[in-house]
Amino acid sequence: MLVHEQLESGTSLLDLRIATSSARPVASHVLVVVHGLPRAMGMGRQAAGLLPELAEHLATESGWMVATGTLSGVGGSTGTFSATQWRADLQQILSRVQLGDRKISMAGFGFGGALALAAAADDERIKGVATFATPAHLEPWCGSADEFRRAVQVAGVVGDERELLTAEELRDDVFAIDPLVSIAKIPPRRLMVGHGTEDIEIPPHDARDLVAAADGRAELRLIQGAGHQLRADPRMVATLLGWLDRHR
């Protein structure tokens, strides 16, 4: 079952979908799935398009509650991208799903994985993080400040141009997140790092760098022949389901 809700996050209104299974309920576990930052023209409307379907599938197969929200400026959510705003959005989602003694885990794609690591580094409620195609080094991922700001505009994650930070501010806001520093703070909580071996947007050695920063205390899953877009890859889904099943 998939339920649609809306959450307020500052001046943004976020779309949130929560999937549950009546067949295999594991009421104490919840997975929050975090999308990445689109960089191609017009992809802001579509960046999280496959996630509700993925959430339903994961919930049905695992019995976990699975929540996925579109962050500010993406999909049907209002607002404008900044790393600070997206971190605030994620906190709103975490507060929504944190009821009683639920054990929260997170799965993030691309920059969403960096956000998930940053959230877990500062929040002991998060018991585990799985990342997929996540950059370990945000400076090369961003490129120049002007290029990054143009990419954000072209992708269409800007609800109001007046809210968009300047080029330097926008990039510096991203750089306030350091995936290598974040992941080092998470063990002994569980970690998995997944990456496609043919990812040309974020090189596979970033995955190895993340595992090394966690002092080797993270599972590394390299998906042979896979590129950057892993959300619809059945091998990624199987890998994530196996991780969930081992941590009931």
Summarize the structure.
This protein is α/β, with parallel strands linked by helices and about 250 residues long. Helix content is about 35%, strand content about 20%.
Can you offer a commentary on this structure?
This protein is α/β, with parallel strands linked by helices and 248 residues long. It has a single domain, classed as Alpha/Beta hydrolase fold, catalytic domain (Rossmann fold). 36% of the residues lie in helices and 22% in strands. It has nine helices and eight strands. It has an eight-stranded mixed β-sheet, sandwiched between helices. Helix 5 (145-155) packs across helix 6 (167-175). The protein starts with a strand and ends with a helix.
CATH topology: Rossmann fold
Strand content: 15-25%
Helix content: 25-40%
Radius of gyration: 17 Å
Count of domain modules: 1
Distance from N terminus to C terminus (CA atoms, Å) equals: 20 Å
What sequence of helices (H) and strands (E) makes up the elements? EEEHEHEHEHHHHEHEH
User: What is the level 1 CATH name?
Assistant: Alpha Beta
